[in-house]
């Protein structure tokens, strides 16, 4: 394959991957706690397989990552809605085990437990959090402490990770630790804000402009490939006429 054709094919594939990512970001621009995803080009370390007197060609790979920047806080007025300011995550109990999330749209279940929209139990220091349904008024402080009638009860578990980029996504808003995420630790740099939720950190205008640009780039790479293909066909036809 012609070098130029290879390059156009690679750039077309990469533009297609970026299109998929940007479309995913736009689709989740209104998802509470969602973090924008990125596609980064990383250079691989030398393999050491080449002779010492020859320079090994550079090799690159596309790596997906997340923009962990803080999303804006949106006030809801609901006592069970919680937002996180800082790098922390809530712990929730799912049928698949413990998962981590920043999606703080919680509510009280019929059993008076604090749960996610899917019904997963939000975990506190004493396990699943139960609030007496008769105690409609309660407050949650910035450390996650739950106060009923001015008495401190349980505390919502908020944890941080040394390398949150290695948290593996499960669905749109849940994560489980990857091998390099490190051990969870009690949050020291995160505040819990009651009556608010964290909005997605997707910049709708920027992502829309990126989508338009990527569509144009993808189309241009496809045209380059068509030009190379037409040129190759012409060469083959001319050789056929000579023979």
From TrEMBL:
Domain of life: Bacteria
GO terms classed as biological process: bacterial-type flagellum-dependent swarming motility
GO cellular component terms given for this protein: bacterial-type flagellum basal body
Primary localization: other
Protein's cellular compartments: Bacterial flagellum basal body
DNA damage found in the keyword field: no
Alphabetical keyword list: Bacterial flagellum, Cell projection, Cilium, Flagellum
SUPFAM superfamilies cross-referenced by the UniProt entry: Flagellar hook protein flgE (SSF117143)
Domain Flagellar hook protein FlgE/F/G-like D1: 83-146
InterPro entries, per the entry: Flagellar_FlgE/F/G, Flg_bb/hook_C_dom, FlgE/F/G-like, LlgE_F_G-like_D1
Residue span(s) of domain Flagellar basal-body/hook protein C-terminal: 194-228
Protein family membership: Belongs to the flagella basal body rod proteins family.
Name by which UniProt lists this protein: Flagellar hook basal-body protein
Species per Swiss-Prot/TrEMBL record: Desulfobacca acetoxidans
């Amino acid at each position: 394959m012609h070098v130029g054709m290879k390059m156009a094919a690679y750039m077309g594939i990469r533009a297609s991957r970026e299109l998929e990512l940007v479309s995913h970001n736009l689709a989740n621009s209104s998802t509470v706690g969602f973090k924008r995803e990125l596609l980064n080009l990383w250079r691989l370390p030398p393999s050491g397989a080449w002779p010492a007197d020859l320079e090994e060609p550079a090799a690159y790979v596309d790596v997906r990552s997340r923009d962990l920047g803080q999303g804006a806080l949106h006030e809801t007025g609901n006592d069970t809605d919680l937002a996180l300011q800082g790098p922390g995550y809530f712990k929730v109990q799912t049928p698949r085990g413990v998962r981590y999330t920043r999606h703080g749209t919680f509510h009280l279940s019929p059993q008076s437990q604090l749960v996610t929209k899917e019904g997963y139990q939000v975990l506190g220091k004493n396990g699943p959090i139960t609030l007496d349904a008769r105690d409609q008024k309660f407050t949650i402080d910035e450390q996650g402490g739950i106060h009923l009638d001015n008495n401190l009860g349980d505390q919502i578990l908020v944890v941080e990770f040394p390398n949150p980029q290695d948290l593996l996504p499960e669905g749109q808003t849940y994560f489980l630790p990857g091998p390099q995420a490190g051990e969870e630790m009690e949050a020291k740099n995160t505040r819990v804000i009651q009556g608010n939720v964290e909005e997605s950190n997707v910049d709708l205008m920027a992502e829309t402009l990126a989508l338009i640009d990527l569509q144009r780039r993808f189309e241009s790479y496809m045209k380059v490939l068509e030009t190379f293909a037409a040129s190759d066909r012409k060469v083959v036809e001319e050789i056929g006429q000579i023979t």
